[in-house]
Amino acid sequence: MSSDNPKLRCRGLWKVYGPNASHFFAQSHDKESRIKTIRDSSHIPAVCDVSFDVPEGEIFVIMGLSGSGKSTVIRCLSRLIEPESGTILLDGENLLEKSKDQMIEIRRRRVGMVFQHFGLLPHQTVLGNVAFPLKIQGLSISEQTNRAQQMIDLVGLNGREQSYPRELSGGQQQRVGIARSLASDPELWLLDEPFSALDPLIRRQMQDEFLRLQKLLNKTIVFITHDFLEALRLADRIAIMKDGAIVQIGTPAELVSNPANDYVAEFTRDVPKLKILTAGAVLSEVNPQKISAPLEGNPTIENTTTIDQFLPILIRSETLNVANNAGDYLGSISVLDVLKKLAEETIS
Amino acid sequence: MNSLHQRKERFSLFAWVAVAIFGSVFLFQRDLADWVTQYPEAWTLPAATWANIGMDWFVDHFRWLFRAISWLLTWPMDAILGLLTWLPWPTTISLFIGIAFVAGGWPLALFTLFALLYMVGIGYWTESMRTLALVAVSVPLSVLVGFGLGVSAWRSERANRLVQPLLDLMQTVPTFAYLIPILLLFGFGPVVGMIASAIYACPPMVRSTVLGLQRVPEETVESGIMSGASSGQLFWWVRFPSALPTILVGVNQSTMAALSMVIIAAIIGSSADIGWEVLSTMRRANFGESLLAGIVVALIAMLLDRITRGFAQDNQRSKRAFSLSPRLILGIAGATALSFLLLSLSVTELSEFPDQWVFYPAAQINAAILFFTVEFGAALDQIKNGFLFFFLLPLRIGLENTIRPFTWGFDLTLTMKISYLIACVSLSLLGGYRYGWRVAVAIGIATVLLYFGIERMPWPAMVALLVTLAWQAGGTRVGLFTLAGLAFMLVTGVWSLGVRSLYLCFAAVLVSFIIGGSLGIWASQSDRVSRLVRPINDTLQTMPLFVLLIPILMFFQVGEFTAFLAIIAYAIVPAIRYTEHGLRHVNNEVIEAAIASGCTPLQILWQVRLPLAIPEIMLGLNQTIMFGLAMLIIAALVGTQGLGQAVYVALGQANFGEGLVAGLGIAFIAMSADRIIQAVSAGKKRALGIK
Ligand SMILES: Nc1ncnc2c1ncn2[C@@H]1O[C@H](COP(=O)(O)OP(=O)(O)OP(=O)(O)O)[C@@H](O)[C@H]1O
Ligand SMILES: [Mg+2]
Questions:
Q1: B220, B228, B318 ranked by CB distance to A119: nearest
Q2: Which has the least CB within 10 A, A11, B565, B647, B658?
Q3: How far apart are CA B543 and CA A345, in angstroms?
């Protein structure tokens, strides 16, 4: 999946908390020994040598337990925190080399961010909050209002423009946060655990909402969560973090079928496999020579369809043709293939 | 761990035993050497003289600067004063009602109307307007300066470390002591009171600015940065408005402080304002007059408090809650004001409130007071003497000297002394057996103090006792701080005055805390009592201090007992407040667990709520002491002897050095007490696992 010109490229990112954070980077070290030196001098290595690419239009989810350094990574991406070392390329420009004023400009136009606890201005109405980034850019009042109103409609808050944040529910407040972060139409959209403070039911609803928005807007997204299921639902690709380092990067199906180590496997164990495994993944189990041409009369499904989605069709016709999104025939799968795949996943 | 704890306990016990022995040695050597009872003059330093020399030099070199400032401030001062005294009274009233309406709706508007009508009807309009003019200039001044200082303290850790102790000092140095250097530097005139009040009103503003800015949630700030705010935008559009509710609370407190200082500054008698009216009539013992003027001061205080508080809370309310827009209301009020102004050109009654309309019942009040004091004089005297003979005097000069035929009705015989000794020892032993050695020590010390009297304790014993107490309660630093404070009082020669103040404050705080605490407990158990007590507390707390003296003075005349009552009247407020708040806000789950285990309401109160509320109650005690000390100074007006009186006398003579030394003495007492109690409260909180 890595392309040569990703929208966002992060390489060798380090962030250390403590009084002499920068001095660990004077000499070159390999990763492990540097982490050890940092720990030994009672500093906190919050982010250790993190690298990843996010192509345009992708939802890249960073998942990890509390304290694993997710917020620190995303705050480095927006330079709310200065990393000790590394490069962050947005469209090939290194953000870490930008001056303060250039960063202000970039934040105004190209990057938007959503916060876990919403970070709304208590003294401003919904409209005022959403219009705030535009006000800061010095747009005229009518432009501000127009654009903000569009955003408010987009997140489904029309009618509440004049409410204050304290008069809204958590879900509504986060809608305001989302609308605000989208107001100046950023290319890169950063979300730090946007739904973690919400009830499960609302969370679910907001996730659907989020996917709907992304279909409409096609942003490049870095999304932080500590909830593996949320990551699976939303992600094009997921990075799993532990103790400041990335353990594995891959699509949801890759993570579930090929966890890099026990740590990742622990997350995937309780995941409902039917919702993760795709026709493509089942196909990889099948001996390709077995069926070389599409069987006439059998329904064709896309290779990204998950088992729970194609299961009803499979029950009826026993064998299915699988094609990619261009329509090229890839192979056929039978009920037995699916069972084999599931058995292997569950036992391993 | 455990053995370390035991070692510490043993060490503490050892320290107290050492103090007891040390103290007794001096106590029984009293007659041998003079220096034991009286700190020798030869050992003191002429600190006051040095301070005066320094101040003289400073005044000589920098007077021009301060005079220039004072001259500059005369302009806005005169302008506002001119405006408020020139405006016809119905115009001013209309404007105020408009503002009050915006701040607090109908009830506040009505209250404002009533208050201002009282001022004009009683014939104190001009005086009231003078006071308001002083406040109107000093509050914006101190709000601006305080905000600036607050922002810089928030910006830089270094500035903060510089500002915080300064604030502590400013809030503990007695108000009279402020006036002396200001008098010397700025000269006489109404501006002096204004400047004094602007300075005095600064600390709450600084504190709330720092607090407000610190408390803006990190994510709110980050969201501002991510919206692309420049640093100026970030401050003025994100941080400042988010901190505004807290900052406005500071404005409210500053306003109240400014008013109280304006009233106190009347002592230097340079402005014919309402404070002066209260004070001068009080000095002439014209209580009717001073009560009528005192009510004006009280009304102004409540008015300013409600209005500024209204604006502070308005910020947190939903703006749409108003049915009438503020602009409309102000428009109506302005129009009314203007029409009154025009009308007053032809109708003289409007421009100048006619004398024959004034209702001034001072003579009637005086007659009533006279009647009352004559009728009930014996009873009043009995109350007063009771307290003096059975509480205040024993504390001060000890049972040994108090018990005389004309006080207690008999002489202290040897048998009685021995029975007292036996009673004390057995009480102490019993206490120690039941509750641990600390209680035994406390009882022991209390009974010794009661027998010999605080004032007659040899100073080395007193120093050892207080320093050990501070050290045991608050650790080494607090102990050293207390030692430094006591040494300061000894070396500068204000020791005996300090002990006198300490005694009176201790007596009053003790009574306030016992009564206030009981009321607090009661109020926490009964909503009806709580509702009854709250407005009384609010009123007492907003009242400029020497107004509180008037009613007490009317019945008990000048003297220590009046001061004692006045201190209690003021210092009781935090005792009630904190006790009630602490008891009511115990973690609900704990209470539910207690109910579930079958506790009776009384058991819940004594065994669950009270122990858990102790940290909060300790803070109440702390505030009680601070309030007590503040009032102690003001009580100098009605005849106390001690540091407060010393400051007051120094003010009269414009003696900077004496005022400074005595003022710092009080500040040291206040700060030591504060540190000790804070430390104990924090320790208790830790022990209870409350964060
Ligand atoms: N300002 C700071 N100073 C020192 N240490 C910090 C600071 N901020 C974060 N840390 C430490 O860095 C590590 C990573 O923190 P971070 O906030 O990025 O975790 P997270 O993955 O976002 O966790 P959560 O899910 O709880 O938000 C943690 O160990 C944390 O204690
Ligand atoms: Mg986080």
A1: B220
A2: A11
A3: 77
Is the minimum distance from the CB of A71 to ligand 1 under 6 angstroms?
Answer: yes
Rounded Cα distance, B141 and B98, in Å = 24
Per-residue burial over A272-303, b if 16 or more Cβ lie within 10 Å, else e, is: ebeebbbbbbbbeebeeeebeebeeeeeebbb
pLDDT tens for each residue of B599-646: 888 888 888 888 888 888 888 898 899 889 888 888 888 878 888 888
User: Tell me, what's the pLDDT at B2?
Assistant: 62
Q: Give every CB contact of residue B129 below 8 A, 6+ residues apart in sequence.
A: B81, B84, B85, B92
Contact (CB<8Å) B230/A75: no
pLDDT at A1 over 50: no
Q: What angle do CA B402, B408, B411 make, to 5 degrees?
A: 70
Instruction: Write down the mean pLDDT value for chain B.
Output: 86
Is residue A68 within 6 Å of ligand 1 at its C-beta?
A: yes
- Using CA atoms, how far apart are residues A106 and A103, in angstroms rounded to an integer? 5
Q: Is residue B322 in some structural domain? A: no
Tell me: do B158 and B74 sit in the same domain: no
Residues B451, B418: Cα–Cα separation, whole Å = 12
- For residues B88-108, give the mean pLDDT: 89
Q: For residue A78, list chain B residues with Cβ-Cβ distance below 8 A.
A: 226
CA A129 to ligand 2 center in whole angstroms: 23
Range of the domain at B240: 139-313
**How many CB atoms neighbour CB B646 within 10 A?**
28
Domain that residue A299 falls in: 274-347
As a whole number, mean pLDDT of residues B459-477 equals: 89
Interface confidence (ipTM) of the complex: 0.82
**Residues A77 and A125 reside in one and the same domain:** yes
Domain count, chain B: 2
Q: Which of A228, A253, A273 is the last residue of a domain?
A: A273
> pTM, whole model, 2 decimals?
0.82
Q: For residues A209 and A153, state if they share a domain.
A: yes
Of B284, B313, B342, the one marking the end of a domain is B313
| Choice among A325-329, B149-153, B297-301 with the minimum mean pLDDT | A325-329
**Pocket mutation for ligand 1, best pick of A72, A80, A114 (most atoms within 8 Å of C-beta):** A72
Q: Do A107 and B223 touch (CB under 8 A)?
A: no
**Do residues B27 and B156 share a domain?**
no
pLDDT at B320: 47
Residues written for chain B = 691
- Please give the structure tokens belonging to residue B630: 């503040």
More confident residue, B346 or B317: B346
CB contact under 8 A, A132 and B219: no
A67 CB within 6 A, ligand 1: yes
Q: Tell me the shortest Cα–Cα distance from A327 to chain B, in angstroms.
A: 43
Nearest-CA residue for ligand 1 atom 31 is: A67
Residue type, B616: E
Domain boundary residue among A211, A239, A273? A273
Q: Read off the pLDDT of residues B391-404 as tens digits, 9 standing for 90 and up.
A: 888 888 888 888 88
Please indicate, yes or no, whether residues A290 and A245 belong to a single structural domain of this protein: no
Per the CB < 8 A criterion, the answer to whether B267 and B309 are in contact is no
- Render B105-164 in DSSP notation, one character per residue: HHHHHHHHHHHHHHHHHTT-HHHHHHHHHHHHHHHHHHHHHHHHHHHHHHH-HHHHHHHH
* Rounded Cα distance, A296 and A280, in Å: 20
Q: Is residue A2 over pLDDT 70? A: no
Rounded Cα–Cα distance for residues B548 and B553 (Å):
9
Of A107, A108, A119, the CB nearest to B219: A119
Number of domains present in the structure of chain A: 2
Consecutive H or E run containing B332 = helix B326-346
What is the side-by-side order of every strand in the sheet holding A93-94?
A44-54, A8-17, A85-90, A93-94
> pLDDT-derived band of residue B436, with 50, 70 and 90 as boundaries?
confident
Q: Taking CB atoms and an 8 Å limit, are B217 and A119 in contact across chains? A: yes
